[in-house]
From TrEMBL:
This is Uncharacterized protein. It comes from the Eukaryota.
Amino acid sequence: LARALGVERTVLKKQMDKYGVTRAMDNISDEELDRLIAEFHADRPDSGLRYLAGRLRARGLQIQRERIRKAAKRVYGPGSFAARQAKIARREFVVECLNALWCGDGHHKLIKYGIVGHGFIEAYSRL
């Protein structure tokens, strides 16, 4: 909505707070929410909470994250999300000498403020 109006999100939020405008959450029953989450789970069994929230939003439903989490726990069973988080397999490499390989990364999270950070490290000293 902020993009459509051509204003920043913070400006829109302040104006909504000022005039008492709230985004109402949909009030569907727990049984209906469980049914929808089970349906989404059948389509994509490895889905997480963000995926479930997105699918609900795509259907025009605005549901609290806590309600989605509790419903997913009822449908999937306790501890199912923690068990699915597998360790990321990292590539192993051999660096023959100093300055043979450098690794770099960038951080663009603050780009809207004109702040971008980059970091580099020499890989031989990291072994």
